[in-house]
Amino acid sequence: MLAQWIWGARRSFIDVSFCGAVHVDSVHADIVVVGGGIIGSCVAFYLAKSGADVVVLDPEPGQGSSAGNAGMLVPSQSVPFASPATVAAWVAALASRDSTISFRRPVPLSLVPWFARMAIEARPGRARRATRNLFELAGKSLHLYQEMVDNEGIDLHLRPVGSLRVFRSVVALERQRRALDELAGCGAEFEMLGPRKLREIEPALRTGLAGAIKFPHDRSLDPARATRAIADAARARGAQFRAERVVGFQRAGGRVVMVRTDRGCLSADEFVVAAGAASAQVGKLLGARLPVRAGYGLSVTYPTGSPLLRSSVMLEEEHVVINSRESWVRLTTGMEFGGTAHDRPGAGAVRRLDAVTRAYVPTLPAHDTAQPPWRGARPMTPSGTPCIGRIAANVIAATGHGTLGMTLGPVTGHLVSSLVAG
């Protein structure tokens, strides 16, 4: 059974009569989706496919975290962010600026209750249940991605080469092998590779590595291109994408009836909150509490003339993901809490990412050829699992996917469509 996750949603709404003073759009939609990234685009696709009249509202559709992320479709990463290992990493991060999990100083006090909730959710029993749920969702989602290609003709450029978790230390490799018991119990398939086999599979990696774990069913794609393709498929079925910012809602008779944007008002029968890391702010406009915090990641993209690597590679001890495509290679790392979406990536973090990766991939293009670094907000929840479900009579949340937004996009759209259908 595919689970739903909602925490502390209050079924109350701000009742503001604002649309009498501004232009009221003459178009009434069946469903308004707030958010035009991979989740919002998948939601719009499945709703439009079912015959609904859909309008997607986003200041910059497809240009947020769906544009510069790692582009990985990874059932192998179904262990939730809330786990005993993550709690230990948080504690280490408070004392070190070099941890993969980091904080913009000063540490926001508002993170304290959120972290306390995460510590509760990280208990082994809960983490195991979350792993099973996420793995089931991820497997279904990859199947739906393939259906988009085979049945709908959507050009996603999926790269079906699997992924490699690479290790320089035998101790770390063995520790990770033991940690995969839970995923193996869910049905995950993987293969242990020694140094020689790793060299055969991925000759661009340096010699002297301890080995790797291969996950044959993982996939990769160009996230910006895939998001555009799915949005275009939704448009072809009648969905509208409008570059507008949501600033409020209006209700009547216990239901939300209208959304206000920076360009006017639009009425609808159903509303979906799929605004990624901004979902908590949208929830506040509705009077609903969504436990979503922004966890910022860093990526750097280098142009290449051909794929640099045969597989997608995760440098496990360095917490770096490498997605190698036909014309570029992208390095992704980090989980930073605090700050804002407008903060620029630190130059030191960018240099460290380049240096760490170059130690594994000597043929990485020159640093000065890289595109400007990208910093994007992941929608994190205390449990590490997404919020998918109704938070009011005619409002559905579809957010909080953390680092698995690209992986879980189609299954989220499918679930939301099922919820709307009843």
UniProtKB/TrEMBL annotation:
GO terms for molecular function: oxidoreductase activity. This is FAD-dependent oxidoreductase. It comes from the Bacteria. Pfam families: DAO (PF01266). The keyword Oxidoreductase applies. GO terms for cellular component: cytoplasm. Transmembrane segments: none annotated. It comes from Amycolatopsis pithecellobii. Keywords: Oxidoreductase.
